[in-house]
Amino acid sequence: MAYQSALAKGTGQALWGILIGFKELTDLGTQHLNNALVAAWETWRHADEQRYLQTFLKQFEEAEFKELIDVLGIDPRSITRQQWAEAQSLLNFLWHDDETQAQLIDFTKDYIDAQHGLEIAETGAGMVTEVAVDILITALTLGMGAALAVTTKVRHANKLGSLGKVLKQ
Fold first, then answer.
1. Buried-state track 123-132, b at ≥16 Cβ within 10 A, e below 16
2. Cα 151 vs. chain centroid, distance in angstroms?
3. For 31-51, what is each residue's pLDDT tens digit?
4. Contact between 140 and 14 (Cβ < 8 Å)
């Protein structure tokens, strides 16, 4: 009974995450039109004719960035060139260093071995559910659903922040 409960919980969490990702994706689409309309209205109310387009574009861009920040959880404009270079360097290192890859694989195996069966069941059910839904959406939309599949994974990105700090050291 405990394992069935763990499987149900993992599946439920995965489905909930997929629904949240879908909502975020649809929000981007509907908000895009809303942002354009609001920016046009506010610009019309406050700008003179000569600066209308310039003011509209600025207000629209700000609204679009706000939506992007809400989805990603960070402001991409806050990432410096130095941080971008460090991230690329770290990714290159991880991609090309066989010893580090082996250590990460060993750590993953040890971590899984240390987990209780209920935790494995819950996590496994969630992963299987997400993969199955991703395959289904991608197949039904002739590949266009891949964008949705990616957006459902963005919610996991904040969990990797501490891992990035450890790997930098």
1. bebbeebbee
2. 5
3. 767 777 777 777 777 767 667
4. no
